Amino acid sequence: MRRQRMIAAITGCASAAVLASAIPAHAEGSWSSSMSGVRTGFNSRTWTDNNNDSVSTSISLSGCSNGGLGPAVSNTQLQLTRETPIVQPDEDRGRYTFHCSSSASHAFGDQPKGDYHFTVTKIQDSSSGYYLKVNSVSVRY
User: Fold this and answer.
1) I need a surface site. Which of 11, 35, 120, 135 has the fewest CB within 10 A?
2) Helices (H), 51-117
3) pTM for this structure?
């Protein structure tokens, strides 16, 4: 009986260790906000990713519209940008078009250490003439 308890205890500990290692890493950081009356060229706040983990940088949008300003809006394109020293141009780390008909999220992959922001590059597939309102913006890095 004692041997069976010992085997059960060892098996239980081994199972717990496997489960613990299977839990995904948490993001290094995150923030949430909203946008209102935004035009193309708008830059988000800047955040610092120290790349202490292997979590993909992701941006999520929910509830986008024109906010009652100008023509209707059904999509917006965001560009993830890594800021560089003033003598170098900032790095374009990818663009994605979000559709306003549903909540959307895009993973830009694990990014190198640095300071980041996103830029609204297009609204309604256009680089001018539209306003954007987003009820919820979430960034994980």
Assistant:
1) 11
2) none
3) 0.79
